[in-house]
Specification:
This protein is mostly helical and about 475 residues long. It is elongated. A hairpin with a 2-residue loop joins strand 1 and strand 2. It contains 20 helices and six strands.
């Protein structure tokens, strides 16, 4: 079938037939790249301003292009203009729509650029905005965790290794560990932004252009830090997409770890916390159930985002320079990672903000787990014993307590002395859970005053981020 003028693709000069309908659908990306319409328009406007500045198009062309693109943006946002599902991609859709309105000027917009450098720019601009949104959500989550921690600097709980009761800490200390993780996630996104926020526009299809363009002008118009200095790299680089996906996977991994603990903590076996009814679900058959579905879904979605990183790496690993159509697969994958993180963070913050903490239950569990055994051994060391001897003696004491249904805090002094004569009444003060926690005043430790310092330090760091 010969190509009719009304059906001619913008790139169709070389071709004598319309593209097969199935191939067109297979080739099309507008179903997912339409979300970049603002960024495509933003990039096109900067490009048009540069073309006019350089005398490549007229001021009249520029006026019509800018007005046409502004009108298209407004109409897309208010619903007066709908995306054409038959368009090949968002770039061709917007250019075709502009050309309908201003035929001569619209045809000149694409001078000195290729879709290869155009899409590379759009994706950078889009992900730049998404990073800012995600950082705002991370900031909210960190504030929620800090607010919870402030109320629990004296709430004693078990610290675990191997999911076995290990040493006493505070709930604030535990929560602040996650704040540290999410803070690193925030700064990783900052680092990604530095490498992402450079302009590939002007790279052309792969070898720049013979037109006298000003790439630095376009970068400045778009508030980008610099240009990419190799045109082959400019159109084929997706390192930033992989880096961002990896950063998002790290966020989801941290959310998943906290989700696992929340799931454990709200079980009947732990009862450390209770989730608000608005952030839990019931069972269709068991009326007693209160399920932590949000935490479970977040834990499950982490696998999805981690897989997105693998998909991007695998997609890129065998591609020669420069652009290849395989790279169209970058967007759906990266968009999915972004969407999942943005879906999880706000609801997770609300869940943490509304949960109730069972201080008494945490204290009860801490009292029964021999988590002060290390402090008992340290007591002997301070009395002059070698640590390994003190360790052995304390282990024997714990075994005795287990056999006789005792705990170290209530074991009679004469029993202590039967294991080592250096034990005195002050051992009970030394192994008190409160003492065990309060004496750990080393920076990074769980002592209440140390936790308060850590909270103040982190709040100062977050305030600095907000002012950057």
């Amino acid at each position: 079938k010969e190509i009719g003028v009304e059906n001619m693709a913008l790139w169709a000069g070389r071709f004598k037939k319309e593209i097969n309908a199935n191939v067109n659908a297979f080739n099309s990306s507008i179903s997912f790249d339409a979300r970049m319409y603002k960024h495509d328009i933003m990039g096109s406007q900067a490009h048009a301003k540069m073309l006019a500045k350089q005398g490549i198009i007229s001021r009249q062309n520029l006026t019509e292009i800018l007005k046409g693109l502004d009108d298209i943006l407004c109409e897309l946002e208010n619903g007066d203009l709908l995306f054409d599902p038959h368009a090949e991609d968002i770039h061709m859709f917007i250019e075709a729509e502009l050309t309908k309105r201003y035929p001569e000027s619209g045809k000149k917009l694409h001078t000195a650029r290729s879709r290869n450098d155009q899409v590379a720019l759009d994706l950078r601009l889009y992900t730049r905005d998404e990073i800012k949104d995600i950082q705002g959500m991370l900031m909210e989550l960190m504030q929620v965790l800090i607010n919870q921690a402030k109320g629990h600097t004296h709430t004693i709980m078990c610290g675990y290794t191997h999911l076995q009761r290990a040493q006493p800490i505070t709930f604030a200390h535990h929560l602040m560990a996650y704040v540290e993780m999410f803070y690193r996630d925030y700064t990783r996104l900052d680092d990604c932004m530095k490498r992402l926020n450079v302009s590939p526009l002007g790279s052309g299809a792969l070898a720049t252009t013979t037109y006298p363009i000003d790439r630095h002008f376009v970068a400045q118009e778009l508030h980008m830090n610099d240009i990419m200095y190799n045109s082959l790299d400019g159109v084929s680089d997706r390192d930033y997409a992989i880096e961002l996906a990896n950063d998002l996977a790290m966020i989801m991994m941290h959310l998943s770890r906290l989700s696992e603990e929340i799931i454990l903590w709200c079980s009947w076996e732990f009862k450390y916390i209770e989730l608000d009814d608005a952030y839990a679900t019931g069972s269709s058959i068991m009326p007693q159930k209160k399920n932590p579905d949000i935490a479970e879904l977040v834990r499950g979605k982490s696998a999805r985002v981690i897989n997105d990183v693998s998909t991007l790496l695998t997609m890129m690993k065998g591609l020669p320079l420069a652009y290849n159509k395989d790279m169209q697969e970058d967007k759906e994958t990266l968009f999915d990672a972004i969407d999942q993180v943005k879906l999880c963070l706000p609801v997770f913050s609300d869940m943490i903000n509304t949960m109730k903490v069972n201080k008494q239950r945490m204290q009860e569990c801490a009292a029964k787990g021999f988590i002060n055994a290390t402090d008992c051994a340290d007591y002997l060391v301070k009395k002059g014993k070698a640590f390994r001897d003190a360790y052995k003696t304390t282990g024997q004491l714990v075994a005795y307590c287990i056999d006789h249904d005792e705990v170290l805090e209530t074991l009679p002094l004469d029993i202590y002395k039967s294991f080592d004569e250096v034990f005195e009444k002050d051992v009970y003060q030394a192994i008190s859970l409160l003492t065990c926690v309060e004496n750990r005043v080393v920076d990074g430790g769980p002592a209440p005053q140390t936790c308060q310092k850590a909270i103040a330090r982190m709040e100062k760091q977050l305030e600095a981020l907000n002012h950057d």
